[in-house]
């Protein structure tokens, strides 16, 4: 049996006390930071609401003042001066409204031009690509052949996915961590081995405008990769423009340092109007449905190897599902605001962190950077 001196016990107790005090101090500081952050968020929201209220009241006063002065037949110079100033202000207000509507129109026009630009770029790339390939290699100049489905077949796939998305979005049984990261909150639902998740945030942009900006990115194969991390080096290719609101895409992720597999997906991108606002859907389909095939620009299949090498190359491919959606909710009595809902389904929680990063990159591209310095 070992004997411990009183001094050892005192020393041990002192260290334990220091650790406890340090831990309490750290927890207290964390709680203070959290309360301070929540207070700032609440204050900003209250100020924003107050500003909107005052702005509406001011506009109403101007309108009533204008009507009153129109009825006033007094010839005093001060009244004439005030009436002229008010008239100019009202003209400026109407001009502002016109510019906002014109901005919406230009966004729609830009989205149409980007679609045409993407098509022309594909034609140019195809015509200028080298036709000669070395034996035993994979051509860097690829074309993708498919046998398109009927419009009703595509519509059936989209309708089934849309119904599933809206069931999840409208469900009141979703779980949440309660955490808020840069304004984003989370929702999730687990059914069997499938995890459905969503991130939500409110923006001071109308749902339609936010949809148009997002569509301009996701419908463009050159812009789409930017919402992913640069390390992934992901590529997107348009296989078919089904209609003005639906595109068939092919996504390809080259082998990473941790894996020798090429990750591939054929998926539909579509946008639809729903009761609550708008839906943008990303839904993968079986490549065999459209008989997807990669070929060289001269029409020869891309793999030109002996049977054993060809089997090894094919086995290094991995086809994965893609099931992601975006909901642009209208906010009652707030037409210039939108509740953005970014969701998806997966069989693993590994992608959840990357999903948050994708949402932040989207926000930076569509809305603007959230990391700005402000003077207090």
TrEMBL record:
Superkingdom, taxonomy of origin: Eukaryota
Protein name listed in UniProt: Uncharacterized protein
Species this chain originates from: Phytophthora boehmeriae
Start-end of Polar residues biased regions: 1-13
Positions of the UniProt region annotated as Disordered: 1-31, 64-83
